[in-house]
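Encode chain A's predicted structure.
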Amino acid sequence: MPRVTFLPDAAALDVPTGTPLLAAVLRAGRPIGYSCRGLGVCVACRLRVEGEVSPVEPAEARLLAGLSEPGAYRIACLCKVQGDCRVRADYW
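Encoded structure for chain A:
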């Protein structure tokens, strides 16, 4: 199973391949905003992500385009874990 590591403290959680990052964050008990309830229409759940995750789909690309650093973030409810990855929120 892929491992999601939460930075900066390196706490980790194993999740099945294909798990949305939002679900992994919530399962780990980390605080995260998601005002659209995980429907992929806001950017409240944006995270900095490194590692093996799904490619950016058009719906996510449109949301990311509105950010000041679009390449630095992924939208947690639209991004799926494909292998080991590391995530960081600006407020952790």
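The chain has a mean pLDDT of 92.
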